[in-house]
Amino acid sequence: MLKEQLKILIKLATIDNELAEKEANLIEKIGKANGITEDEIYGMMKNPEPYKNLDTLSEDQRFEYLYNIVQLMKIDGKVYKSEIVFCQDIAERLGFKKKAVAELSKGIFSDPSITSDREELKRRVKKHSLR
User: Fold this and answer.
1) Suppose 13 and one of 23, 54, 123, 127 were both cysteines; which one would form an S-S bond, judging by CB atoms 3.0 to 4.6 Å apart?
2) pLDDT tens digits, the chain, 131 residues: what are they?
3) How many CB atoms sit inside 10 A of residue 3's CB?
4) In angstroms, rounded to a whole number, what is the distance separating the alpha carbons of residues 124 and 39?
């Protein structure tokens, strides 16, 4: 399932037709932390594939997907309207209202070393669940 998440992250990272170094580093970090080889990660970045249905994810997995895409959106310090729209689309596909993106965005910093209280964010985002 993690490869599916990486596909989504790669799609978001390249939505502005450019893969920023910070974005690539975060994708690589997430992939490596979950046992995906560097070669696989770079192969996925070079040749992005479509992602699959997200309906089968657990509540925790849905939150993690959304958390990671919002973090990726913010990591390069520039947030484009197309990135917000993409995140909102993914949020809806994950079973959240579009407002969940704004809620998460308030608590996620562009520097991933500044961590936020994930459990508190999870509680706040749960209010925006469609399920």
Assistant:
1) 23
2) 578 888 888 887 887 788 888 888 888 888 887 788 999 999 998 888 777 777 778 899 889 889 988 988 888 888 889 889 989 988 998 899 999 999 999 988 866 677 778 889 999 999 999 88
3) 15
4) 37
Q: Is residue 120 part of a domain?
A: yes
Residue found by looking up tokens 């978001």 in the block: 12
Cβ atoms of residues 32 and 38 within 8 Å: yes
Residue at 131 is within a domain: no
Q: What's the CATH code of the domain at 75?
A: 1.10.3680
Distances (CA, A) of 130 to 87, 91, 94, 127: 16, 10, 9, 9
